[in-house]
Amino acid sequence: MALNKNHEFEDLNGTRCGIVEKNVSPERMAFLKDLLEQNGYTVIAVPSPAPKAAPAAKPAEGDAVPAQPQTSNTEPQTFTVGVTDITFNWVNAIFGRQLKTKDGHIVTLAYWQQKEPDSHDEIPYYEHE
């Protein structure tokens, strides 16, 4: 049950966790896990369940039955990433300037979204001239 979309929590591997992100790639999962663990959080990542397919419509009498689509085991695997602190909210952590990078810089939104390779915005937006 979530208070709102930005504060979800659920059981991951039998441990109650605050959800950081769902359906992330293995590369994104590694980035988040590294960043959150160096900030003192215990991270749990589990494979996301496969999306549920809608049931196929039944063919009318006399129509040919369509072939079933082949499913492969090579579909990209995604993960659900959570932390054991159920009060964690990534939005509050970013804009509250609570997370730091390995080199001690404050994590910015662009760094969190992996749009910038490093985080060097030490001056809050409201102090810029």
Characteristic terms for this protein:
4-stranded antiparallel sheet; alpha+beta; 129 residues
Question: What would you note in describing this structure?
Answer:
This protein has 129 residues and is an alpha+beta fold. Helices cover 18% and strands 19% of the residues. It has 3 helices and 4 strands; from the N terminus they run ββαββαα. It has a 4-stranded antiparallel beta sheet with strand order 1-2-4-3, covered by helices on one side. A hairpin with a 2-residue loop joins β1 and β2. The radius of gyration is 20 Å and the shape is elongated. The mean pLDDT is 81.
Structural class: alpha+beta
Strand content: 15-25%
Number of helices: 3
* Helical fraction: 10-25%
Q: What characterizes the major β-sheet?
A: 4 strands, antiparallel
Shape: elongated
| End-to-end gap | 42 Å
Adjacency order of strands in the biggest sheet: 1-2-4-3
Note the run of SSEs as H and E: EEHEEHH
Integer-rounded radius of gyration: 20 Å
- Give unreliable regions as ranges: none
Count of distinct strands: 4
How confident overall, as mean pLDDT? 81
